[in-house]
């Protein structure tokens, strides 16, 4: 499992780990976007929360993760959970299903770097590839012209997530 704040480098590290070890990369963000795009029942439920600016409830996210972990490729190759669990409830759900990682990686990045990385991040809606205007710009003008900012890639959203993480850390003690 790998966890860290938005823009901490989870996606980049996951790519490297997957290439080296041949694991199945399971990102809750990717799962949510795929379910919403496919118009599935679970995707439609998730979309309601996302459109209202709320976090998708643990039960919905856990159901998607459990379904993905049960597929043959994840069972055969092993898996890398990206950004899950994010709450005590999600962690408890994994424990109830007796799903335990062999390794747990936490990426700890200073707040100001997270904000800088996040606000410069852009999504190519055609390929799904993530770019950064300063650190990893697209190769050509055609790609650059179609890039979009994801709704979560704002300074306000990142500061909110950082605050939630800080409060969550305090609650553990």
From TrEMBL:
It catalyses: AMP + ATP = 2 ADP. It is an enzyme of class 2 (transferase). CDD domains: ADK. Its EC number is 2.7.4.3. Coiled coil: none annotated. InterPro entries: Adenyl_kin_sub, Adenylat/UMP-CMP_kin, Adenylat_kinase_CS, P-loop_NTPase. GO terms for molecular function: AMP kinase activity; ATP binding. Keywords: Kinase, Nucleotide-binding, Transferase. SUPFAM superfamilies: P-loop containing nucleoside triphosphate hydrolases. Belongs to the adenylate kinase family. Monomer. This is adenylate kinase. It comes from Cajanus cajan.
